[in-house]
What does this fold into?
Amino acid sequence: MLVWNKPQLGDREWISKCVEEAGYMGSDAAFASIYLLQSKYNIRVAFYKDCLIRYYEGHNSRHGYTFPLGAGNIDKALEAIKQDAIDNNRKLEFCFITEEQKAVLEEMLEGELVYSRDDGDSDYIYGQPELSTLAGRAYHKKKNHVSKFKRTYEELRYSEIGAGNTEDALMVEDMWYNEHKNDEDNSVLIEYSAIREALLNFDELSLSGGIIYVNDVPVAMTIASYISKDVVDIHFEKCIGEYAFNGGYAAINQMFAQSLKGCPYINREEDINIAGLRKAKESYHPKIMLRKYSAVERSL
It folds into this structure.
């Protein structure tokens, strides 16, 4: 029997352990993502025989069970998921299913599910050395953007986010929000609330990040966390006003990548089918495109 609970800050250790044991690289399983998005998708978590199982009540590809993650018996965990669907009189649905997980489901639940994929849900995963150095012809334009930023603003510095400067990161977000609050998209407000909560619980969520200052004024910031010891997930990245136009996003991207030690991959999440976002993410040449499927119980 699955026992469902809302994600709590105290769940970080066991959830992160299950994700690490599974070797999963998806941004959806970063504990900070689970915690900060729980209201948006009504996320619930269950610990079943050394496995993490989640349930989402969002729309389209954000609805259903997730594949069990952890060191436990996957067969038994999937049986528990099937029984839970029966007990709660709901369809057997899955979300955030990778190609590897899809192969397992196709074998264990043969013919029971219909699969679909939205390319906007794929995670872009990059090599840390590539984003850190921007070496080679492929990154020539990115390197130029960073150089322009440094030439334009000589009095700049980068600082990691810590106890003494979370207010500065919030200042960047406040200014960015004021620039975009009239956009016809309530996701701006939802993200604003999530960033404030992230900074309020920065240590409890085991977050990391950095801020760029120009003349001691914060102008760009990024907030991230480790999905596992090998993968860092970029949750939020903001740059304001003229600084964004003059290469600030490229600068904060590189400077944070340079600050990472011993972590080979950086997950910069999905493009949600926004053309401009897709172009920007593709321009950094991902090493891995982590494609994700949804699955729903086949109709009789």
About this structure: The chain has a mean pLDDT of 96.
